[in-house]
Design brief:
Blueprint: E1 2-8, E2 11-17, H1 23-43, H2 51-58, E3 60-62, H3 65-80, H4 90-95, H5 102-107, E4 122-125, E5 130-133, H6 142-157, E6 163-167, E7 170-173, E8 182-188, E9 191-197, E10 200-206, E11 211-214, E12 217-220, E13 223-224, E14 229-230, E15 235-242, H7 245-258, H8 260-270, E16 274-278, E17 284-286
Helix pairs in contact: 1-6, 6-7, 7-8
């Protein structure tokens, strides 16, 4: 098993490749790292030269087919999740003080502003590669960008063998290892639960890690698009499985925002296997998770 690590997108990344050392596997690992770096440069809202930052400044921009397609995909997921996942929450994040990378927010939080709900107009034309933003809308692809980067890096690794990419808890898997499915530990209040994943994506969204003080309040990074505030949820984590890491991350975010009872119903509705970890009580499986 070949292993590589790097720091990217404000988190730790781990690349696992079930292959022997050699020129092919070395090229695959280098290609995976390059994909993560490329997408970080394009999709970060904290880098002033990124496509997302330039779009937020210019309001309409030719971003290319890949990014426009990712925006269109995020909008479709907004519809599927009833607005619980929304790429139009960039202004809400800034209002919470999350206006720069989390490391900088944690050291010196900004002031807390007025709540900015999501749901604003975004137009995306993947064929022409254009994206346009409605009045007051700021794009934040956030976690789905991280999931997409994990998917693309995993595809690069798959050229040399079965692979798993873990990008800050967003997992993309190209196929089973020679020993079988990949075991993944998921923390619950009762202890660690091991899930097995043979292909696709697995993602966890939580309120217990990225927290900071904004004014007199302690807030976290998961925005409820319906209110524009940090989500008030009875869950501390939600883990979801999907066909890709990008889809899994959007689902996990939506389930976390929804809360335990509503999230369990949403997982069933979406057909998304999920593990919901409440602040009190036992973890709950939903969406067909065995």
């Amino acid at each position: 098993m070949l292993r590589d690590r790097l720091r990217a997108m404000g988190t730790d990344a781990e690349l696992l490749l079930d292959a022997a050392p050699g020129p092919g596997s070395a090229r695959a690992l280098a290609g995976a790292r390059a994909e993560i770096r490329r997408l970080e440069a394009a999709l970060s809202r904290f880098r002033p030269d990124s496509l997302v930052a330039r779009l937020n400044a210019q309001r309409r921009l030719r971003v290319g087919r890949e990014v426009a397609g990712l925006v269109a995909r995020a909008l479709a997921l907004r519809d599927r999740t009833g607005g619980r996942f929304d790429p139009a929450v960039g202004a809400a994040g800034v209002a919470l003080g999350y206006d720069r990378s989390f490391e900088r927010v944690r050291r010196r939080p900004g002031p807390r502003g007025r709540a900015r709900p999501g749901g604003g107009r975004i137009e995306a034309d993947p064929d022409a590669g254009w994206v346009a933003l409605g009045p007051g809308v700021h794009l934040d692809l956030g976690a789905i960008a991280k999931g997409h980067a994990a998917d693309r890096a995993c595809a690069a690794l798959a050229e040399a063998g079965p692979a798993l990419v873990n990008l800050g808890g967003d997992l993309a898997v190209s196929g089973p290892r020679s020993a079988g499915p990949w075991p993944v530990g998921v923390a619950t209040r009762e202890g660690s639960l091991t899930l097995e994943i043979a292909a696709g994506g697995l993602a966890t969204s939580g309120t217990d890690r990225r927290r900071w003080r904004a004014g007199r309040a302690v807030v976290h990074h998961v925005v409820d698009p319906r209110t524009g505030r940090a989500a008030e949820t009875d869950l501390i984590r939600a883990t979801a499985a999907a066909a890709s890491a990008a889809d899994a991350e959007a689902a996990a975010t939506a389930l976390l925002v929804a809360g335990l009872a509503e999230g369990a119903r949403l997982a069933e509705e979406l057909g998304t296997p999920a593990l919901l970890v409440p602040a009190e009580g036992p973890a709950r499986r939903a969406g067909g998770l065995a």
